[in-house]
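Our platform keeps sequence and structure together, in a single record for each protein. Because each token names a local backbone shape, the row as a whole describes the fold. One such record is reproduced below, unchanged from the form in which we store it:
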Amino acid sequence: MQSKHSNDKIFAVPQKVEDVADCYFYHTVELPGYGVITGDWDLRRGMDDYLGKVAFAGQRVLEIGPASGFVTFEMEKRGAEVVSVEVTAEHGWDFVPYPASKLEEVFGPRQIVMQRLKNSYWFSHAVQHSKARVYYGDVYDLPSSLGKFDIAVMASVLLHCRDPLRIIEQCGEKATSLIITDMFYPDLEGAPICRLAPTSQNFLWHTWWHFSTRFLTQFLAVMGFKTSETLTHQQYHRGRAHTLFTVVGRR
């Protein structure tokens, strides 16, 4: 496949992770020689809907936030060349700015979890002989050296980001099709709403927003993308079914 003028020097050197015990799996995955490894989310039954029923054969894909890489490797199995963008070790997370005294209890453990999460990606990458690549950097300022893409995927990631529209804008500058998947809230439907999720009581330091589907389709239209009919689908978090939605925009 063509790299579409990317600079290969910006991509991470694959990390060697030899012990599965050093990994935290965000997604349930079945790995050759290891069988099923249970993670927080099990997307295996609903992957086609999760990705908007888009064909990936021969497509160069930009993925924002790969976590354990389950979605990465599923797109690769469908014929895509995948480049994922992940936060650096120094950044760790787009923390909601609760008082420092409260966040101190989160920072240390989160750094450990994020390293174990990255370990699960590289462990799976090696076991599956993946050719997917990772760029560690600022998701709000993606370098031109990443090159151009056919598709950009923002799957269950925008809710965790302070400025989701900036990320959509960045992806829209680099890709001709956009796939956005997030949690579905029926009470928000019918209007272009982005609702703040954290309160002073719930200490939701890791999640910023709840979106209506129209909030995203309207913004994609502003950017010049035509959107497909929104898909809703069931995915499983620790055994419990949740409804998510997927919007596909094409320019």
About this structure: Helices lie at 47-50, 70-77, 100-127, 164-174, 213-222.
